[in-house]
From TrEMBL:
This is Olfactory receptor. The lineage of its organism: Eukaryota, Metazoa, Chordata, Craniata, Vertebrata. It is found in: Cell membrane; Membrane. Keywords: Cell membrane, G-protein coupled receptor, Membrane, Olfaction, Receptor, Sensory transduction, Transducer, Transmembrane, Transmembrane helix. It is a multi-pass membrane protein. Residues 34-285 form the G-protein coupled receptors family 1 profile domain. It comes from Chelydra serpentina (Snapping turtle). GO terms for molecular function: G protein-coupled receptor activity; olfactory receptor activity. InterPro entries: GPCR_Rhodpsn, GPCR_Rhodpsn_7TM, Olfact_rcpt, OR51/52/56-like. GO terms for biological process: cellular response to lipid. The chain crosses the membrane at residues 16-42, 54-79, 91-113, 134-156, 190-214, 235-258, 264-285. Its main location: membrane. It holds the Pfam family 7tm_4. PROSITE patterns: G_PROTEIN_RECEP_F1_1 (PS00237), G_PROTEIN_RECEP_F1_2 (PS50262). Signal peptide: none annotated.
């Protein structure tokens, strides 16, 4: 049983890790400052205390938390060449990374719902999206994100790890840690697939559905200018959806089916999946 896992940076580039750390540090600084500024502006400006901006602040909080969850290990490798992570620390990190990813997926769904009500049912917007209802929806999705991932660390803990203890990324992911085990991982594999389908799969399907309804409504508007204005309010949300789901789905597909794919591609997709949405969302929505 390995007492520690070894994390990997970018293989073969060890002598330039200090230089590689510069863009990572910049990414973190911009992500943290950008999301904090959004939260500060929304909190201090009473005219922004509306459903659309409350959902945006939920997204900013999730992005901030996601950045903080990966900072210790990614910067630890590139700045201090510290590759070791204890099993418990690894399980804790993967719990936060996965649950925050699912919460982000839920927030994007709530934002799609917000746009759907605003465009398809504008007269009832204020009565449908009341503050108590938004708070309840937010709480339900946060609890869902935490609850579905909660069993994962415990399921991983009962395994015996005897294969090479080197992980592929600079942080811990469930699929990867699971593949290190010598025990039978069928239960974990099925559970992992169930989580993905019941959270990200369901959310993306509902987002797609809400956009189909939005398009239907927009195309029935006679005025071209009004049509453009209605669609314009969805552009930033659509960008955020693409930024989040594209690398996430890509990474899942590579893990399950792309056994012969280039390791560098997996590493790169892994960084894009965790670092790009928190970096880009503040810019997109600003």
């Amino acid at each position: 049983h390995w007492p520690v896992f070894l994390l990997t940076g970018i293989p073969g580039q060890e002598d330039v890790y200090l230089w590689i750390s510069i863009p990572f540090c910049l990414t973190y600084v911009i992500s943290i400052v950008g999301n904090s500024v959004i939260l500060f502006i929304i909190k201090t400006d009473p005219s922004l205390h509306e459903p659309m901006y409350i959902f945006l602040s939920m997204l900013a909080i999730t992005d901030l938390s996601l950045s903080i969850a990966t900072i210790p290990t990614i910067l630890g490798i590139y700045l201090f060449n510290s590759r070791e992570i204890s099993l418990n620390a690894c399980f804790t990190q993967l719990f936060f990374i996965h649950s925050l990813s699912f919460i982000e997926s839920s927030v994007l769904l709530l934002m799609a719902f917000d746009r759907f009500v605003a465009i398809c049912n504008p007269l009832r917007y204020a009565s449908i999206l009341t503050l108590p209802r938004i708070a309840k929806m937010g709480l339900v999705f946060v609890l869902r994100g935490l609850a579905v991932v909660f069993p994962s660390p415990f399921l991983l803990k009962r395994f015996h790890y005897c294969r090479a203890n080197v992980l592929f990324h600079s942080y811990c992911l469930h699929q990867e840690v699971m593949n290190m085990a010598c025990s039978d991982i069928t239960v974990n594999s099925i559970y992992g697939l169930f989580i993905i389908v019941s959270t990200v799969g369901l959310d993306s399907l509902l987002i797609l559905l809400s956009y189909v309804m939005i398009l239907k409504t927009v195309l029935s508007i006679a005025s071209h200018a009004k049509r453009a204005r209605a669609l314009n309010t969805c552009v930033s949300h659509l960008c955020a959806v693409l930024l989040f789901y594209t690398p996430m789905i890509g990474l899942s597909v590579i893990y399950r089916f792309g056994k012969g794919s280039s390791p560098l591609l997996q590493i790169l997709l892994g960084y894009i999946y965790l670092l790009v949405p928190p970096l880009m969302n503040p810019m997109v929505f600003s």
